[in-house]
Automatic annotation (TrEMBL):
Keywords: Signal. It is found in: Secreted. This is Polysaccharide deacetylase. GO terms for cellular component: extracellular region. It holds the Pfam family Polysacc_deac_1. Its main location: secreted. It comes from Saccharopolyspora kobensis.
Length: 246
């Protein structure tokens, strides 16, 4: 497994990391201790800012294909972790209004449940299988966020297979589509975890922070929250441009 990941990482060495934004939930909210929720009006403003500045939000699959073809200029990856039901209700219509697409990373073993891993936060409903089918049919890319939202570096090898392989198989069955991308819960990733995800056959994977395992199977992302208006969005985009090279 290590040999495969090393080859993929070397082949991309020297190119800037793609600009990928990390969202979770888009909903009206009052209590948000984990800072994972963006108001729908703010989200609409953020998408408008991208378009006004010559940028277009796209799914990770579209972004990675464009990079391979040398046609990724002006494209920004939009990712949504956890698969909240408000993705179907609030995110998809906004994406369609602004001519954007996105990737939603779904927790395959908690479909129709809630965010029980966030004990201090308000309960947020996760998409049902039917809602996942609807967003996939509407053009969203569905990726895997694992089986049970676990810290993957804590797991043994068999559990890693369940989180990567079994979760993908469940989502394939629901969507009838290929599942090309993986996202590490909590951003918890090390070399063993990267190797397991690459060996499972994923084309790419998303982390959070830049690290010594960053590459096609541990892509760093930029957190976006409810406080991110035009000035902060501009600053984050500039920071990425200045620091994105390996």
């Amino acid at each position: 497994m290590t040999q495969t990941v090393s080859k993929l990482t070397r082949s991309d060495t020297g190119r800037p990391f793609p600009y990928v934004l990390m969202y979770h939930s888009v909903a009206v909210h009052q209590h948000d201790p984990y800072l994972v929720t963006v108001d729908p009006r703010r989200f609409d403003q953020q998408l408008r800012w991208l378009r006004d500045n010559g940028l277009r939000g796209v799914s990770m699959g579209e972004l990675m294909r464009a990079r391979r073809a040398g046609e990724a200029r002006g494209l920004v990856g939009l990712t949504f972790d956890d698969g909240y039901a408000d993705f179907a209700r609030n995110v998809v219509p906004a994406l369609q209004r602004h001519g954007c697409t996105a990737t939603v990373f779904v927790i395959a073993g908690r479909i129709g449940g809630d965010n029980e891993w966030d004990p201090a936060g308000p309960r947020k409903r996760l998409m049902t299988a039917e809602e996942i089918q609807e967003v996939a049919a509407a053009g969203a890319e569905v990726g895997s966020h694992g089986l049970l939202h676990q810290h993957m570096s804590y797991l043994d090898d068999d559990e890693l297979v369940a989180e990567s392989v079994a979760s993908r198989d469940l989502l394939r069955e629901i969507t009838g589509q290929e599942v090309a991308g993986f996202c590490y819960p909590y951003g918890d990733v090390d070399r063993r975890v990267v190797d397991a995800v690459a060996a499972a056959g994923y084309e790419y994977a998303c982390a959070i922070w830049r690290s010594d395992v960053s590459g096609p199977h541990a892509l760093p992302r930029t957190y976006i929250g409810d406080r991110d208006g035009a000035l902060r969005l501009r600053a984050k985009h500039l920071r990425h441009r200045l620091t994105s090279r390996r």
